[in-house]
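> run fold Aspartate aminotransferase
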Amino acid sequence: MASALPTSFPAEVVPQAPEDPLFGLMAAYRADTSPNKVDLGIGAYRDDNAKPWVLPVVKKADEIIRNDPEANHEYLPIAGLAALTSKAAELVLGASSPALAEKRVASFQAISGTGALHLGALFLAKFYKIAGANRTVYFSSPTWANHHQIFTNVGLPIASYPYFDKATRGLDFEGMKAALRDAPEGSIVLLHACAHNPTGVDPSPEQWAELAALLKEKRHFPFFDTAYQGFASGDLDRDAGAIRLFVEAGFELIVAQSFAKNFGLYGERAGCFHYVAAPSPDAAETKTRVASQLAILQRSEISNPPIYGAKVASIILNDPALFAEWQDNLRTMSGRIIDMRKQLRGKLEELGTPGTWNHITNQIGMFSFTGLTEPQVLKLREDYHIYMTKNGRISMAGLNSRNVEYVAKAVDKVVRETQ
Ligand code: LMR
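> ok
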């Protein structure tokens, strides 16, 4: 055999990277053979039997696709399925949004929320260069871990603003405002539209209004991540309130929209990216130029987006009866989660578990930031086969009427033992 050349990727150049913590946790849970095991890790909805739930309305849309004699596997356009992207924009901005009437919204189908975030990050890395603007992206502390990687990978500097107040387990609103006030003018600010991941803590409508005024004064660029519209409160309009407020306030902004959670289309990677130009006489022209560059980025990254999940979501968004049924499915999911919040808090309070637990019902959406420490989290895993991320985040959807008592008792014991 001819002597092989040394690798171009030695360890000092390509060091061994750690496994993704969340997907590592998922694998550890799957490998656990205990009958008592509980998965509170990955943010994916489960029904009361701890099983993934295919939304009944999604089953209907799937049936429609299967029975369509015209269905094929052709390429979508670069910007994706127009019947989806137009309705997706209405969903997030409101059908009567002036931004839509004034044709200043560019919408692209994306590989779920992650792909939409990436497309936005890539666009900003390439084009966000106006004089005096700061290219640093500010994230809440904490934020969804993947935000760091997505923006760092395209070369944008990142920083953080305070968000979670450990003492109240609510919002550190003063800290957040102070940091955003101190951030250099024109910074990019990543905001979770609702159901903040990982904390479950959202600003109130009044606080959002204050934030909009502050960001405007500082000429910051808002970048919304919306992965839980309709899933958080059960009300699609309410969960889009923050984004609509910013659009009404006249911002130029970006929205990354995921359909993983609210349609239960996790693995189908359905989502959209929206760019909204600020109102001005040349807004539509700006939008057209921006869209032309986004098309080039999209083409070089994925050519064109995948079709199945897009068709499912589009069928539902375009049919009034299916849309109404979807809203009902959303209320089923959010309602069960709200009920689990009440039960978990109630049981911990009944047990007299040291500490306060009102934050569990105050927080909203898929997650609760419990305040459990890393040693407590590890003990829950080792002694009770209960899996959650090290930061004490639990996916509320992993709780159900059969395991909530087991989890509450385990938390009670571990909290007492580690006090
Ligand atoms: C989560 O935070 O658990 C979800 O958003 C899944 C993911 O991709 O991280």
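Residues 320-351 form the longest helix (32 residues).
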